[in-house]
Design a protein that fits this description.
The complex is a heterodimer of chains A (286) and B (647). Chain A has a single domain (7-282), classed as Farnesyl Diphosphate Synthase (Orthogonal Bundle). Chain A is 72% helix and 1% strand. Chain A has helices at residues 7-21, 28-37, 44-55, 60-82, 98-102, 104-125, 128-142, 147-157, 164-189, 194-221, 224-227, 240-263, 272-282, and strands at residues 91-92, 95-96. Chain B has 647 residues and is α/β, with parallel strands linked by helices. Chain B has three domains: 9-234, no CATH class; 255-307 and 358-642, Alkaline Phosphatase, subunit A, CATH 3.40.720; 317-354, no CATH class. In chain B, the strands form three sheets. Chain B has a nine-stranded mixed beta sheet, sandwiched between helices. The termini of chain B are far apart. Classes of the chains: A mainly alpha (286), B alpha/beta (647).
């Protein structure tokens, strides 16, 4: 199952904005940044930001900088995750991983540069109150309760027997936190109410876990050409499939997507594009 | 050969794993499961067992409050109809009970989830889901038993209820029980998972839906069986509508109730000093008095022919619960109950009130007479307020608060019914006051000290007013007049009931004053007990609050009464009502605890009018909700306090 049709227009806008912010030229660090950031991608997270902004009555153009910042953070996390000290992954998005292409030192610097650019993009694009709010959101999603914490737990769990709650914590940090940040950042740029923000956070939380479960499934049975990763690259790690089996994981992913859809009830038909997104996540490459 | 439709054990195990993970995800804030999300919602971020148990238990308590509070209110409304007199009362009771059940469920859920999380047994620790489910089953089963018995109690005439309706109610009860059981189960599971650090893995069970369906079916069958058993054991016959056909002997009965009467004092008085009382009580029929000397309790027993447990008035002092029209009898609490009453009074959750119709569950003789088409009236009897007029034949009720209303004027708040009687008495009130003032002024012994004169004056005032009122109700003639005269008891209590040491000379003076009151009472009673051809005067004299004697006297005078009543020997308080109703020609209910005492009647009368019986006088309807007029609750308490009834 491919991405929803409406994705294309958002992807084009996002790709253009990302290319403007991080041109694929200049120093090795700049090229390293662009290498991962501009690599072919579905842009699920930044599209989520734009969709949530529109759902809450805002314009996607207003949320574009926030969406770009989200994607920058995501790209930085991918670079760091693939490092030999971390997952030591050779492939990413169908190409050699960043450190394979530019070397570890450059890759690390590129990741830091992307993180800094993310905050800078927000600071320059929005008025202080909103910028401050978005920066805090981003900081939470990156920090110890987000990507960093999740990755740390993940490293500690490698080759270890972990329980289900630990696995959820890892995924919540590595995937869920940025999904939630993406959705709520979009809502905030549109000046959404607290109830709307909470509903979208619930949507993103469930969707994020579903996304990760599907990722685990793909790691088990996906085609490298489609996943962009080597199959069984996570063999040293405990995954959802370890707990539930393949069919169980599929079932839970579908249920999580259904739950995400139910969180959208207050928005009615206006949230159909987000429903399409969750349907896409549920059926991704399965 | 394996059945292809039967899932193999591997598939079942997979399903079980997924079920467990689903539950864990819910406890972590994922998935949308209604109750689960509600119960575990606030515990999502809390990872410590104690915090999860506390937060989730609060939600379980809230669920229990919402579900059980209203259900219990309906139940208690049926059980204590006098407490819930209308919709607003029902809402308030539901809120009270919701709070009660909420707190109870919170505490139980919190305690049980912590306990099961700490069970050390290896087998149980290895099967946390089983343990959690066990906790849920216990909570659900308790809830279901409670709801089933509640339904049984709430519907005394269960045999008359359509099976479909009962099945519907049971289905609701099963639903509530499953819901609460499930809530308790997932709370326990979440706590176990947190405390065992995810060690809970191995589960063996069928799919959740199949299990739920089986549990619902078993619960429904169990509840139905429980209902069947309790209904069979306690089934009550459905009573037909009472047939109160009167075979009139042409007798008009005056029932004179004298409180605080001591037969020994009567015997000690010089001949001729109390001629009317001597005439009325000449039969010397003993009335066995109860051990509990509460006037409201005792005289309601006289008026209904039922013991206190049946008629419902247990004591003069009751408690009104904040926000409710109805009241509950507080009796004479001691120890913890007394402290609790004091605390609730202090918090203004309850306040003292007096015995009223709200507590009354049995019909009184004047109500039965009214039902039978006779013209009846009652004056100043305990527990007659609020007086209501429910039909053309309703008795005239001048309640124990009538004097207060007549003194203060204004709109009625149930003090007198019907309103026309109030209008008439209000017009007469100035003349009544003059009459009473003359009467009381002439009775006070000049030799008595001021305190004694005041005590006697207060008592005489009360009695004189009642007699004056009663004498104004007799047109057109009444078939039954019941009047309660508390003056002697008030005087006796004021003069001798303080408990303080009294010098012999002072005691003698007070006794003489009391004797003088007997003389005054005699003259008062004479005005309403004049001999008449068609009259039967039934006089009931009870010992009152401070006497140590255990009997009073009963007498009957009139053409239908026996000349020699010694054959009656002894009566009980519950015998008065059926005896009076018999005299009026009203059939006697087999439900009454007492029987007509034929020894009070002439042989010719007894032979001519054999006792007729019916099954029941029917159930007493709860008083209608709503009160009008300015309330005299506080004034009534103050009045009773000044007369020594309430501390």
């Amino acid at each position: 199952m491919g991405v929803p049709r409406f994705f294309a227009s958002y992807q084009q806008v996002l790709d253009a904005e990302l290319a403007r912010l991080v041109p694929d030229a200049g120093t090795p660090v700049q090229r390293s940044m662009a290498y991962t950031l501009l690599a072919p991608s579905k842009r699920v997270r930044p599209v989520l930001t734009l969709l949530c902004a529109e759902l809450c009555g805002g314009r996607s153009a207003q949320a574009l900088s926030a969406a770009a910042a989200i994607e920058m953070v995501h790209a930085a996390s991918l670079i760091l995750d693939d490092l030999p000290a971390m997952d030591d992954a050779p492939l990413r998005r169908g190409r050699p991983s960043n450190h394979k292409a530019f070397g570890e030192a450059i890759a690390i610097l590129a990741a830091f540069a992307l993180l800094n650019d993310a905050y800078g993009t927000i600071a320059r694009a929005y008025e202080p109150p909103l910028a401050s709010r978005l920066a805090a959101l981003l900081s939470d999603s990156v920090g110890i309760k987000g990507l960093v914490g999740g990755q740390a737990d993940d490293l500690l769990a490698t080759d270890q027997q972990i329980d289900f709650e630990m696995l959820e914590r890892i995924h919540r940090g590595k995937t869920g936190a940025l999904f939630v940040a993406a959705a709520t950042a979009g809502a905030h740029t549109a000046g959404a109410s607290e109830d709307a923000v909470a509903a979208l956070a619930a949507y993103a939380k469930n969707l994020g876990l579903a996304f990760q479960i599907i990722d685990d499934l793909l790691a088990v049975e996906g085609e490298p050409a489609r996943t962009g990763k080597a199959v069984r690259s996570d063999a040293r790690k405990t995954t959802f499939v370890s707990f539930s089996g393949v069919e169980g994981a599929r079932m839970l992913a579908r249920e999580l997507c259904d739950t995400a859809d139910r969180a959208l009830q207050p928005f009615g038909r206006k949230a159909d594009r987000l429903r399409e997104l969750s349907a896409f996540v549920a059926g991704r490459n399965l | 050969m394996a059945d292809p439709h039967q899932p193999d054990s591997g598939a079942r195990a997979d399903q079980a794993r997924v079920d467990e993970l689903r539950q864990r995800l819910r406890s972590l804030g994922y998935l949308d499961a209604g109750v689960d999300r509600f119960v575990l919602g606030p515990a999502r971020e809390a990872r410590r067992p104690l915090a999860i148990a506390a937060l989730a238990s609060l939600r379980v308590g809230l669920l229990a409050a919402v579900l059980l509070g209203p259900a219990a209110a309906v139940g208690i409304g049926a059980r204590l109809p006098n407490l819930v007199t209308g919709t607003s009362d029902a809402v308030v009771v539901a809120l009270y009970l919701a709070a009660l059940f909420g707190v109870a469920a919170t505490v139980i859920s919190f305690a049980s989830s912590l306990i099961v999380a700490r069970i050390p047994l290896r087998v149980i620790a290895a099967r946390p889901q089983f343990v959690a489910r066990l906790a849920g089953v216990l909570v659900g089963a308790t809830c279901l038993v409670y709801l089933t018995l509640w339904w049984r109690i709430a519907n005394v005439d269960a045999a008359a209820i359509a099976p479909a309706w009962t099945a519907f109610v049971l289905a609701i009860a099963v639903g509530i029980s499953l819901l609460l059981g499930h809530a308790a189960s997932i709370t326990a599971f979440a706590v176990i998972a947190a405390s065992q650090d995810g060690a809970a893995r191995r589960v063996e069970r069928r799919s959740a839906w199949a299990l739920t369906a089986v549990a619902a079916a078993v619960a429904f069958a169990g509840a139905a069986a429980l209902l069947l058993v309790t209904t069979t054991e306690g089934a009550e016959e459905v009573r037909p509508a009472p047939n109160l056909a009167v075979v009139s002997p042409g007798v008009r009965v005056t029932l004179i109730a004298i409180d605080g009467f001591d037969p020994a004092v009567l015997a000690s008085l010089e001949p001729g000093r109390v001629p009317t009382l001597a005439r009325l009580l000449s039969g010397e029929v003993r009335l066995h008095a109860g051990v509990v000397r509460d006037p409201a309790r005792e005289w309601t027993t006289v008026a209904t022919g039922q013991p206190p447990d049946v008629h419902g008035v247990h004591g003069l002092e009751t408690r009104r619960v904040a926000g409710l029209q109805g009241s509950v009898t507080s009796g004479d609490p001691q120890g913890l109950a007394s402290a609790l009453r004091g605390a609730t009074d202090l918090l203004r959750l309850t306040q003292p009130s007096t015995a009223s119709v709200a507590e009354l569950r049995s019909k009184t003789i004047w109500e039965v007479a009214g039902d039978a088409g006779l013209r009846a009236a009652v004056v100043n009897w305990w527990a007659t307020w609020p007086a209501t007029q429910s039909g053309a034949n309703s008795p005239i009720v001048v309640s124990d608060r009538a004097t207060l209303r007549l003194e203060r004027g204004g709109a009625l708040d149930g003090e007198i019914a019907p309103t026309s009687a109030y209008d008439r008495l209000r017009d007469e009130w100035p003349r009544i006051k003059e009459e009473v003032a003359r009467s009381v002024g002439g009775m006070l012994p000049a030799s008595a000290d001021a305190a004694t004169r005041e005590a006697l004056g207060r008592a005489a005032d009360v009695d004189a007013i009642q007699v004056a009122i009663a004498s104004r109700l007799g047109s057109p003639p009444l078939d039954l007049l019941a009047i309660y005269l508390p003056g002697l008891d008030i005087a006796q209590h004021a003069l001798l009931g303080s408990g303080e040491a009294i010098a012999p000379s002072e005691l003698a003076a007070r006794l003489e004053a009391l004797r003088s009151y007997y003389g005054y009472l005699d003259r008062l009673v004479a005005t309403i007990a004049a001999p008449r051809d068609d009259g039967l005067i039934v006089t009931v004299a009870q010992p009152g609050r401070i006497a140590t004697i255990t009997h009073g006297l009963v007498g009957a005078t009139g053409r239908s009464a026996a000349a020699d009543q010694k054959g009656a020997a002894q009566m009980r308080a519950v015998d008065i009502a059926p005896t009076v109703l018999y005299a009026l020609g009203v059939p006697v209910s087999r439900e009454l605890a007492g029987r007509p005492v034929l020894g009070l009647f002439s042989e010719a009368f007894a032979n001519r009018y054999p006792v007729r019986e019916i099954d029941s006088y029917g159930r007493r309807e709860a008083p209608a909700a709503g009160r009008e007029g300015q309330s005299l609750d506080r004034e009534m308490i103050e009045r009773l306090r000044s007369l020594g009834y309430v501390r």
